């Protein structure tokens, strides 16, 4: 393709043409079969002079000069070689009956026993009794040997067979201050002479106020009789404050009470004891929770004038204080 003004360019290089010797005439008859040609490696090896007869010649009996067979015999031989397509299919496997899933949920022990007995009866009706040695199996959970042993030990110890709720106050010694059988009694001090003792008393007091417990605070700094009570209960070594008693049980000092509060046992103890809750003496308008007020007879001086002499007031304590008439 080109325009009219284009010129023809003669190429000096000739195109490639295969030589005449590359064209050969393929003669089918010139091909020699390998089995008709003697081996060059082993010239003594025998070889066949003729081609192996095809399968149809074998079936027709052309081998060894046998008489040719009829077409019916050849067809029968071919049918034997074919796969048996019309063979009947194998019998199907026996279908298993569908299994019904039963609900084994239960709410009480009696319901569980009924379900177990019903399931065992159904299995015996379906499959029948299985031969073999009879093994004694507990039919009820109550017949468990471990449960029976535990029940016998509880009965021997005087405890009931059922679950017994543990008393958290049973771990503490039974030491009851005067009038503290049904109350929470706390011995404290309001003097700040010893800083650690004063802080411990405030910490215990704060815990009781946090739980809103109505407690009987006995300040040894306001009345020396409280310190005497504490010495009678715990001895000289146990007279240090603070000390806590819950319904006739000695709980401990500041370290023990704080430890019980951190582990959550103090709350369980107070709930179990069913202590009184509320403001208690803290809401008293007379003493404000101090439990003591100045003596109205001597005005807190501990001295009264009898005639011309001054005598010791018999209504107040050594500090000139008396119990609050409103909250006591």
TrEMBL record:
Q: Which Gene3D superfamilies match?
A: Glutaredoxin (3.40.30.10)
Glutaredoxin domain location = 184-251
Query: Where are stretches of biased composition, namely Basic and acidic residues?
Result: 70-83
Q: Which InterPro entries match?
A: Glutaredoxin, Thioredoxin-like_sf
Question: Biased-composition ranges for Pro residues?
Answer: 86-95
According to its UniProt record, what is one Pfam family this protein matches?
Answer: Glutaredoxin
Region: Disordered, residue numbers: 34-99
What CDD domains does this protein's entry cite?
Answer: GRX_GRX_like (cd03031)
PANTHER family listed in its UniProt record: F1N19.7 (PTHR45669:SF7), GLUTAREDOXIN DOMAIN-CONTAINING CYSTEINE-RICH PROTEIN CG12206-RELATED (PTHR45669)
Protein's UniProt name: Glutaredoxin domain-containing protein
């Amino acid at each position: 393709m080109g325009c009219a003004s284009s010129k023809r360019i003669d190429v000096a290089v000739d195109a490639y043409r295969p030589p005449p010797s590359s064209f050969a005439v393929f003669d089918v008859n010139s091909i020699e079969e390998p089995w008709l040609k003697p081996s060059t490696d082993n010239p003594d090896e025998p070889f066949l002079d003729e081609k192996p007869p095809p399968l149809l010649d074998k079936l027709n009996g052309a081998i060894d000069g046998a008489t040719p067979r009829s077409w019916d015999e050849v067809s029968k031989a071919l049918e034997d070689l074919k796969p048996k397509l019309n063979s009947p299919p194998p019998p199907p496997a026996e279908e298993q009956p569908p299994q019904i899933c039963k609900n084994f949920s239960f709410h009480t022990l009696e319901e569980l026993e009924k379900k177990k007995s019903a399931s065992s009866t159904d299995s015996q009706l379906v499959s029948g009794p299985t031969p073999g040695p009879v093994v004694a199996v507990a039919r009820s959970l109550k017949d468990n040997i471990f449960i029976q042993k535990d029940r016998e030990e509880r009965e021997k110890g005087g405890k009931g067979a059922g679950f017994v709720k543990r008393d958290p106050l049973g771990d503490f010694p039974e030491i009851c201050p005067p009038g503290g059988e049904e109350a929470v009694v706390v011995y404290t001090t309001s003097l700040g002479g010893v800083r650690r003792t004063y802080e411990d008393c405030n910490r215990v007091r704060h815990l009781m106020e946090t739980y809103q417990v109505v407690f009987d605070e006995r300040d040894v700094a306001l009345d020396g009789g409280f310190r005497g009570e504490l010495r009678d209960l715990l001895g000289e070594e146990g007279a240090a404050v603070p000390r806590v008693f819950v319904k006739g049980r000695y709980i401990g000092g500041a370290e023990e009470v704080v430890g019980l509060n951190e582990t959550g046992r103090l709350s369980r103890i107070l709930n179990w004891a069913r202590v009184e809750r509320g403001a208690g003496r803290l809401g008293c308008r007379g003493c404000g929770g101090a439990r003591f007020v100045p003596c109205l007879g001597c005005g807190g001086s501990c001295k009264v004038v009898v005639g011309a002499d001054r005598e010791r007031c018999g209504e107040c304590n050594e500090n000139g204080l008396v119990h609050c008439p409103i909250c006591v």
